[in-house]
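Retro notes (design track)

What went well: tokenization of the new backbones is finally stable.
What didn't: we kept losing track of which sequence belonged to which structure.
Fix going forward: every design gets posted as structure first, then sequence, in one message. First example under the new rule, 255 residues:
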């Protein structure tokens, strides 16, 4: 037993950003299993999207951080408890003039969600099974947007920008969820990600890994890189992921 918990982003990190394959990470995944390490997925995806991936990876016995940290899919659960109705009704307490300019996934409907996300039609329904957050587009002016975000704050909601969407949630990030789970499990943490929304989690882990993604928005140089606590992979996606996981396991063997 290593006492290690690996926190990992999915797209562009453990999954290849073109074909979503984790084939090349299989030996490292098997080694994590053998060594008794946990794998906690941390993704912007919904529980409905993460659950089959977690099962395919063979780590359904570990919790997963979903909707960018807005919620957790419990270990062995196939569904997450929902705060979505509560969120939607709080959204509707915002000034109707401002509220009307925000088109959440539920306001858009499946066709528009598919158009704006580029997801295949069979993936759209899983992406729309929100439990903790509502991504959407704000169509009003920048000053209305500022007013909308402030109004959300007054009803206890938080708006976060990421990719093309403005996502409304009760707050919490991948990093906060990681801290929560670390407090529960103890032991060492390794966090891996490829994009700026992973940076805080990578910084907060005992060791962090930035997985190379030549096409994405790069993660700026992080404080922990100077100390060598955070490293960057030279290969992309699951290949880079595997090299970093094996390097961590080697370190633990030596220690
Ligand atoms: Mg990613």
């Amino acid at each position: 037993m290593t006492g290690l918990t690996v926190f990992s982003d999915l797209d562009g990190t453990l999954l290849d950003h073109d074909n979503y394959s984790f084939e090349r990470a299989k030996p490292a995944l098997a080694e994590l299993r053998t060594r008794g390490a946990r794998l906690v997925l941390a993704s912007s995806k919904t529980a409905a999207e993460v659950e089959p991936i977690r099962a395919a990876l063979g780590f359904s016995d570990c919790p997963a951080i979903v909707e960018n940290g807005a919620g957790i899919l419990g270990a062995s659960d196939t569904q997450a408890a929902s705060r979505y109705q509560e969120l939607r009704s709080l959204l509707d307490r915002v000034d109707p003039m401002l509220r009307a300019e925000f088109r959440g996934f539920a306001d858009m409907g499946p066709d528009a969600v598919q158009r704006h996300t580029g997801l295949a039609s069979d993936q759209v329904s899983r992406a729309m099974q929100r439990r903790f957050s509502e991504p959407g587009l704000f169509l009003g002016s920048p000053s209305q947007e500022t007013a909308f975000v402030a109004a959300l704050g007054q009803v206890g909601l938080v708006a976060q920008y990421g990719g093309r969407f403005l996502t409304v949630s009760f707050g919490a990030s991948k990093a906060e969820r990681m801290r929560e789970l670390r407090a529960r499990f103890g032991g060492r943490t390794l966090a891996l990600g490829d994009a700026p929304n992973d940076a805080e989690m990578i910084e907060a882990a005992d060791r962090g890994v930035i997985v190379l993604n030549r096409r994405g928005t790069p993660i700026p140089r992080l404080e922990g890189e100077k100390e060598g606590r955070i490293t960057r992979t030279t290969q992309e996606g699951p290949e880079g992921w595997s090299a970093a996981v094996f390097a961590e396991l080697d370190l633990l063997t030596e220690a």
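Added context from the reviewer: The pocket of magnesium ion is lined by residues 9, 11-13, 194-195 (CB under 6 Å).
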